Amino acid sequence: MAMVLDKVVPFGRSMDEYIKIFNLTNADLNKSITGIGDGPASFNAEMTRQGKSVVSVDPLYQFSSDEILQRFNEVVDDIINQVKATSNDWVWSYHKSPDDLRHNRVKVIREFISDYETGKKSNRYTIGELPKLAFNNQKFDIALCSHLLFLYSDHLDYDFHLDSVGEMLRIAKEVRIFPLITLMWKHSQHLDEIVKYYALKGYKIDIEKVEYELQPGGNKMLKITRNFI
């Protein structure tokens, strides 16, 4: 699982963003949750502080907090400048402006860094990546996947998506994925086939609108639930 850190943009999201991105209710938050591809999100840190249970999985966790923070500091201004250059193309509802987005990402990574080494020791941050995860069957109630599947449809093929969703359904009773559009802001070419495949297998499929939107049209979340044992 050799990951090259200088290819990574370690932007993470907050607990509040996760709640809005995945339509998480208070009841959901009290279930056992895994976040796949969490990166430097502060979701785990904030949830843990409230006595809730999250295990985050990402190849990024092979690096130290210093390395992750250094990489963030190397890329943050470039990314925000790119967003500023195209600021009319984004939706400024949750984040109020490119500077507000930067402020939120800095806040999130600080929170993550403050929790990371402790969380690693207690196995809340585990090194791993789709499409194969080292957890037992049905270990979690909910598996969340933010800004990986569907978003990178142009880089990750249909089989990768199919195997990844299957793996998440193996380890959790329910899977939620956001967003459903690509980096080019187009409807993912894999989405309809994935939905059809799991619907035919008897899973309950919901596509829900969510409050969070930064990419135009990126305000929907896919929920796949096992309704059989």
Strand order of the largest sheet: 3-2-1-4-5-7-6
CATH class: Alpha Beta
> How much strand?
15-25%
- Shape summary: globular
Question: How many DSSP-defined strands?
Answer: 7
Architecture in CATH? 3-Layer(aba) Sandwich
Assembly form of the protein:
single chain
Which homologous superfamily in CATH is the superfamily? Vaccinia Virus protein VP39
Mean pLDDT: 94
Radius of gyration (CA) equals 17 Å
Question: What is the CATH T-level topology?
Answer: Rossmann fold
- Distance from N terminus to C terminus (CA atoms, Å) equals 33 Å
What percentage of residues falls in helices of 4 or more residues?
A: 25-40%
How would a textbook summarize the main sheet? 7 strands, mixed
Are there runs of 5+ residues with pLDDT below 50, and where? Answer: none
The count of domains is 1
Kindly name the structural category. alpha/beta
Number of DSSP helices?
A: 7
Element order: H for helix, E for strand: HHEHEHHEEHEHEE
Could you give the topology of this structure?
Elements: H1 15-21, H2 26-29, E1 33-36, H3 43-49, E2 54-57, H4 65-85, H5 98-121, E3 125-126, E4 140-146, H6 158-171, E5 172-178, H7 191-200, E6 204-209, E7 220-225
Parallel strand pairs: 1-2, 1-4, 2-3, 4-5
Antiparallel strand pairs: 5-7, 6-7
What would you note in describing this structure?
The protein is α/β, with parallel strands linked by helices. It has a single domain, classed as Rossmann fold. Helices cover 38% and strands 16% of the residues. The chain has 7 helices and 7 strands, in the order H-H-E-H-E-H-H-E-E-H-E-H-E-E. It has a 7-stranded mixed β-sheet, with helices on both faces. Helix 3 links the parallel strand 1 and strand 2. Helix 1 packs across helix 3, helix 3 crosses helix 5 and helix 4 packs antiparallel against helix 5.
